Amino acid sequence: MPTKLLPAFCIVILLSVSPASAIVHHRIDVTLFPDENRFEATDLVSFPDLKGPKDIRFRLHPDLDPRRAESLVPVEVMTAGQGPGSYAIELPGDETGFAIRYGGVINHPLRAVGEEYARGQQDTAGSIRPEGVYLDGGSGWYPLLPGDERITFDLTVRLPGGWDAVSQGTRTRHEATGDGTIVRWVCDTPQSAIWLLAGRFREYSKQVGDATAMVFFREPDDELANKYLEATGEYIGMYERLVGEYPYGKFALVENFWETGYGMPSFTLLGPRIIRFPFIIESSYPHEILHNWWGNSVYIDYGSGNWGEGLTAYLSDHLLKEQKGQGASHRQETLQKYADYVLQGRDIPLTAFRSRHGSVTEAVGYGKTLMVFHMLRIVIGDDLFREGLRTFYADNLYRTADWQDLEKSFEQVTGQELGWFFDQWIERTGSPRLELGDVTTGPIDGGGYRLSVGLRQVQPGDAYRMRIPLAVTLVGQREALQVDLEMTGREHTFDLSVPAKPLRVDVDPEFDLFRRLDRREIPPALTQAFGAERAVIVLPAEATQDLLESYRSLANFLSRTGPGSVEITDDGALEDLPAGAAVWLLG
Questions:
Q1: What is the Cα–Cα distance from 558 to 343, expressed in whole angstroms?
Q2: Is residue 547 packed enough to be buried (19+ CB in 10 Å), middle (13-18) or exposed (0-12)?
Q3: Within 10 Å of residue 202's Cβ, how many Cβ atoms?
Q4: What is the model's pTM?
């Protein structure tokens, strides 16, 4: 699933006779001229499932010039008011498609995206240039039809000598000579868009089971390429055992010509520096591979909430940490981000999460969702959790699925009614807050001790139904006694019998619950300042002009990284540090 948003000029709803579930097939032949920032193409668009007359509406990039192809129906410019790049074709009842020739320049500049400029995220609405080609569905480089039609395609790309091209699906033709390259990609599995990437690549490949692992680097690097090829095989094998058969014929790592971290069906597009970070191969890389199950073959119903990012994060980022014995610390960091960034008034229910566009949406859409799947796994057990994942994947392959489909799959394998679980964690905003009440203990006649533990939920609103882990440290015992307590109301006192004198009680010691952490559970971190509702940045008034301008530049940079409101001042204007705000002292 792509991790980027499409440009606004292509997000347009037009009337069409085609149903939303129709499959549209594109047979595209495109010639790229990177030095001239342009391309030429023909596209035969067919609707194999539609019968009768068809009034077709489509859009192209406004700088392209569509023309009718020989002996086929004409292309007419749509009526005024529909916007540039809008076209109409009327097909008679016996026609199942149309063909057009078109071409032109697509070369949009890179632009900063998202709330957090600190991440250095950049995007483009499409670019053909000497250093590389990036075209996605939002670029309007092929006819875009309205609605939610799924796409299959047969794409042939002609390029200059030394160039190569990558898209979804399986490569069925690859001819490279000094004069030019011809490459063909075929994708028979339904897609939401068609991506076309091109550059001067050095290719590496390896067969991994029924799929091909591929690496496309802009500069030769045999050692690093082999590491990625090995990792691809390991991750595909792991997720096939966990979820089900890998849904594509290849997975490719493609090096982009600017810094990106995109995941598309059957490939990922990473920037030159990102690829070479040593931690990427054990963090972001398995995350992007797993998206080929969640998002790129089981499609996400974004209108009812994006479950895919959190499930992918749980089965990649969290799972790999858990395998190293670091699962609890990863969950603590996840909960810390929620506590630091999701302040009052910023929260949303998981049904409202669409995509990440800042720290708050990441903490909710990725972090809370990750914790929801972790709690579900604890409630039903590891074996049924894995069976539920496999059932959900098998039942929804190449279909759009929502939270209710997930609930249905897990209810099917457990035989339990799980509506209470999904309702409280998916529909509600906010989080539980737990406080430890009275704790008493005393000996029991005949041996052992009685332990009474009081717990309170102190968050606003209704109580949550939770299974709360408790760890009791006992005299003479090396390992703490661990129990799970069922809590359904706002207050409850639990009475336990333990074999030795209790010394200490820890509530949720391994951070298994989604809850708002107590401040004493959170180690000092800059996220507390980045997530503050109000921040004051104080500059040194007596610094040299050059140094002061550098500090001011840093202050402007910090002001865009997450705080609700930011005031920039200097120490000459303050008598005391302001209360009730995060304060940055520069100098």
A1: 19
A2: middle
A3: 16
A4: 0.85
Cα R_g (the chain), whole angstroms: 28
Q: For the chain, 587 residues long, give each residue's pLDDT as a single digit of tens.
A: 444 432 322 222 222 333 345 789 999 999 999 999 999 999 999 987 766 667 788 899 999 988 766 545 566 665 544 667 888 887 777 778 888 999 999 999 988 765 443 345 688 999 999 999 999 999 999 999 876 678 999 999 999 999 999 999 999 999 999 899 999 999 999 999 999 999 999 999 999 999 999 999 999 999 999 999 999 999 999 999 999 999 999 999 999 999 998 999 999 999 999 999 999 999 899 999 999 999 999 999 999 999 999 999 999 999 999 999 999 999 999 999 999 889 777 899 999 999 988 888 999 999 999 999 999 999 999 999 999 999 999 999 999 999 999 999 999 999 999 999 999 999 999 999 999 999 999 999 989 999 999 999 999 999 999 999 999 999 999 999 999 999 999 999 999 999 999 999 999 999 999 999 988 887 777 766 776 778 898 999 888 999 989 998 888 887 776 666 888 888 888 888 888 788 989 98
Which tokens go with 201? 């690549």
CA distances from 10 to 87, 136, 191, 544 (A): 13, 11, 17, 49
CA–CA distance, 429 with 250 (Å, rounded to integer): 40
Q: Are the beta carbons of 196 and 133 closer than 8 angstroms?
A: yes
E-assigned strand segments in 192-344: 196-199, 202-208, 211-217, 250-255, 261-264, 267-270, 299-300
Strands of 167-309 (E only): list them.
170-176, 180-191, 196-199, 202-208, 211-217, 250-255, 261-264, 267-270, 299-300
- Residues 211 and 249 sit within 8 Å (Cβ to Cβ): yes
